[in-house]
Design brief:
By secondary structure, this protein is of the alpha/beta class. It has 10 helices and 11 strands. Helix 4 packs antiparallel against helix 5. It starts with 8 loop residues before the first strand and ends in a 10-residue tail after the last helix. It holds the Pfam family ECH_1.
Length: 258
């Protein structure tokens, strides 16, 4: 695989948020090996910088992502990163919140990238679909696994078995999208949502994600046991003391992530 002359995944720091943009509009931001590696590197940047509190993932050119680059796959390229899954994201476990800002098509693996995020902001005319069954495949990048956990079983099965898409407005009605915006406004709304998240303690945000993952499918007793460990760690942190002090003094908390 040759190295592209320009990055296929761009990052931009906006306040405490890292805006991650899939930048392959001529291919509707389809994911090939280079895009997967670029997205994995962008997530590493998000995790490594303490001043960054959340990430927003979007696509250039009015399309989120058309999913796997089939032409690249036929050439033998893999759109997966070892240990991180499709696009370097679907099997990763970022500690910081990640918001998908979806304009245009989020099809196949593109939809699975959005499902791997913690929150989804969608333009009203965005299109979400898992058409793999129309190609003799299944949505193996997390679609078959995650979608039935996000919407009622029969609705998930309809989308998975027909391969038919839904628009952003319907995604909001189904609970797939946290916010639905006018066309062209998904990134701006996602950045505002990221700012709200950044008002909260970074250690607590990371703990919420770990507990939610650990509790998924686990017996309640095991989930509570895991949560007790997280609470013990949080209660020993400087941020908990700061949060309590700030509340008592009626001022905004000054988080340090320690």
């Amino acid at each position: 695989m040759s190295t592209p002359a320009t990055p296929l995944v761009r990052t931009e720091r906006i306040g405490s948020t890292l805006l991650i943009t899939l930048d392959r509009p001529e291919a509707r931001n389809a994911v090939n090996a280079a895009v997967a590696a670029g997205l994995a590197a962008a997530l590493d940047e998000l995790e490594a910088e303490p001043e960054l509190r959340a990430g927003v993932l979007t696509g250039e050119g009015g399309t989120f992502s058309a999913g796997m680059d089939l032409k690249a796959a036929l050439r033998g390229e893999s759109p997966e990163v070892e240990g991180r899954g499709f696009g370097g994201l679907t099997e990763a476990e970022p500690a910081k919140p990640l918001i998908a800002a979806v304009e245009g098509y989020a099809m196949g693996g593109g939809f699975e990238l959005a499902l791997a995020c913690d929150l989804i902001v969608a333009a009203e005319d965005a299109r979400f679909g898992l058409p793999e069954v129309k190609r003799g495949l299944i949505a193996a990048g997390g679609g078959v696994i995650r979608l039935p956990k996000r919407v009622p079983h029969h609705l998930a099965m309809e989308l998975l078995l027909t391969g038919d898409p839904v628009d952003g407005r319907r995604a909001g009605e189904l609970g797939l999208a946290n916010r639905v915006t006018a066309t062209g406004q998904a990134v701006a709304e996602a950045l505002r949502l990221a700012e709200r998240l950044a008002e909260n303690a970074p250690l607590a945000l990371a703990a919420v994600k770990r507990v939610a993952r650990a509790a998924d499918g686990a017996p309640d007793a095991d989930a509570f046991a895991f949560q007790r460990g997280e609470m013990k760690t949080l209660m020993a942190s400087a941020d908990v003391r700061e949060g309590m002090t700030a509340f008592a003094e009626r001022r905004p908390a000054r988080w340090t992530g320690r």
